[in-house]
Specification:
It is a single chain. The protein is mostly helical. It is built from 10 helices and no strands. The longest helix has 18 residues.
């Protein structure tokens, strides 16, 4: 329970944009857990903090290390999470990076696995990816994200999707 509590404090700090505090809590969660699933999730959360801080090299290194782990090679959900997050981070680092094939591959597998939370993340990343390249596709993915967030009853994701829809609609 201790590591889960640390992770919750990390998520809360992340939501409050207190990223240095968030890193501290995720680090404690990683060190205090003995459960492989949880450690993987905490390390992924830690890498996402690096994305929020625009520390793309650090996030990419963390995702690459997670990708190389035996665990991500045997667990499809985590393998796809890393594929999606790594491609998205490389795109954020360099907008000329063609993340489209990897992002769509992740979405396809998440749809096949009926992973709604994963699909939600995929549509969020695809909406961001297409925002400048193809606003019509970006709008489609933002709308799909919104519909899935409603199905998941996730107010935070609904709000994020609505923000994407508003921003994309204002680009017209």
């Amino acid at each position: 329970y201790l590591s889960a509590t640390y992770n919750c404090l990390g998520v809360t700090s992340d939501n409050l944009k207190n990223f240095s505090n968030s890193k501290n809590w995720y680090n404690k969660a990683i060190k205090s857990s003995k459960i492989t699933d949880d450690i993987f999730a905490y390390k992924n959360n830690f890498a996402v903090v690096h994305i929020r801080l625009k520390e793309y090299d650090k996030a990419i290194d963390m995702f690459e290390n997670l990708k190389l782990s035996n665990y991500s090679k045997t667990n499809i959900k985590y393998k796809i999470t890393i594929l999606d997050n790594l491609a998205y981070t490389k795109f954020l680092q360099r907008h000329s990076y063609n993340a489209e094939p990897e992002l769509y591959k992740a979405l396809e597998i998440r749809e096949r696995e009926k992973d709604l939370w994963g699909q939600n993340a995929s549509h969020a990343h695809l909406s961001d990816y297409f925002a400048e390249k193809n606003p019509k596709k970006a709008l489609f993915h933002a709308y799909k994200m919104y519909r899935i967030a409603q199905e998941l009853n996730s107010p935070d994701d609904q709000l994020e999707a609505l923000q994407k829809l508003i921003n994309l609609d204002n680009q017209k």
